[in-house]
């Protein structure tokens, strides 16, 4: 009888831990694919992007801080999605956040979409390319005026086209 209670308790505890993990680490809407205009198979994305960009854009990875050459990009131009070349941010909205990733206070209208990200123990807002669904980074409410937003982007998720 005691052994059954321990096994039942262990089962209930494991089930509770699994449910907690799903709630904490799942991305809202990840189960239902969003209909993006540019769609490719994982193999096609990997071939097109290479291993590092694939990990960031398609698997929501994060590059190491202070490693992106785009962090020090100060020329006039446009920052594009590395997956589909959609213009995402104007250089006029780039600012030095000190976080180690290229940061912007405003995307180009209609160029990005957001969704809730619970992959860490805190809730964040994930930023995706509106055309291909590539993971770009996250947006936070600690940016400069006029928006007060900080779009903290992975440099490998972007390319730069000078004006």
Describe this structure in words.
There is one protein chain. Helices cover 25% and strands 25% of the residues. By secondary structure, the chain is an alpha+beta fold. The strands form 2 sheets. Strands 3-4-8-7-6-5 form a 6-stranded antiparallel sheet. The longest helix is centred in the N-terminal third of the chain and has 24 residues, at 2-25. The radius of gyration is 19 Å and the shape is globular. The model is unreliable at 1-6 and 8-32 (pLDDT under 50).
Structure summarized in a few sentences:
With 163 residues, the chain is α+β, with helices and mostly antiparallel strands. It has helices at residues 2-25, 42-49, 51-59; strands spanning 77-81, 87-90, 94-95, 103-104, 112-117, 124-129, 135-140, 150-153, 158-162.
List descriptors.
163 residues; alpha+beta; 3 helices; 9 strands; disordered N terminus
């Amino acid at each position: 009888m005691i052994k059954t209670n321990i096994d039942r308790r262990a089962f209930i505890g494991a089930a509770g831990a699994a449910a907690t993990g799903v709630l904490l680490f799942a991305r809202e809407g990840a189960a239902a694919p969003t209909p993006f205009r540019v769609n490719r198979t994982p193999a096609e994305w990997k071939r097109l992007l290479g291993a590092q960009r694939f990990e960031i854009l398609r698997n929501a990875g994060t590059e190491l801080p202070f490693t992106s050459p785009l962090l020090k990009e100060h020329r006039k131009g446009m920052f594009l999605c590395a997956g589909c070349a959609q213009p995402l941010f104007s250089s006029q909205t780039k600012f030095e956040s000190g976080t180690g990733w290229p940061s912007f206070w405003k995307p180009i209208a209609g160029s990005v979409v957001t969704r809730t990200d619970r992959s860490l123990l805190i809730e964040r807002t994930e930023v995706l390319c509106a055309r291909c669904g590539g993971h770009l980074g996250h947006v936070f409410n600690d940016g400069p005026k006029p928006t007060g937003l900080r779009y903290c982007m992975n440099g490998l998720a972007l390319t730069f086209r000078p004006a």
